[in-house]
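Both lines are given unchanged directly below:

***
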Amino acid sequence: MRMRIKIGLNLSAVALAALAVALPARADRRTLIRAYEYQTQPQGNLEFELWNEIETPKSSFADSLITHKLELEYGLTDRWDVALYHVFQQGGPAASSEPFHFDSWRLETRYRFAEKGVLPVDLMLYFEVERPAKLGDPFAIEQKIILEKSFGPLAVVSNLVAEQRLGTGENWKYELEIDLGLRYELAPAFRIAGEVWGIREKEGAAEAETALYAGPSVSFATKKFWLQVGAGFGLNDDAKRVQFRSVLGLNL
């Protein structure tokens, strides 16, 4: 009898440990490479995120631009959060390649209108302002409408995005973007996704360009951290680069 009780307790401890590992992270987990999903930080929760991106021109891998973002994200309420980024970059075209340097500060806020599944389509708003480290350069602002609809383990996600660089003449720039992704949860800890997105960009007097991309991504989460990895590949002539991205989130 004692042996059975002891074995039973040991099996229960193993099961609880496995469940703890499988539980998804409490914070702002990402799955898709481009689109934001319908989630904000819980009230009072602080999370650190490390973003690593490589943008590689189709012409030459040596001309790749590498971007690192350090982000602190905090939940003001269960549906409203704020985040501060410090952005670092290095590389770029060989003729104008830059060493590792501090690029910009970015301040972001997001607001969800209801808990998940209450509205016919989940709706969240996003706003970001960017202050370049070169203080003579103009500010940039970005707005997103984030939409999501879940069907059990499957979710459809879309972002409508506008970005403006508030300069004049050749410094002026705008982007319009549409993201559409499908996410499937194989288990609470593991998700897979696919995504397509298009970016309409105009800078100064140059002709506007419309780039189309698509790519896969995966996401793994535990109770303490989550990791998303994905890639985006150009579908038309204006899509001149390949993008790789990983994001690691840690609950603090």
Residues 104 and 133 are 5 Å apart (CA to CA).
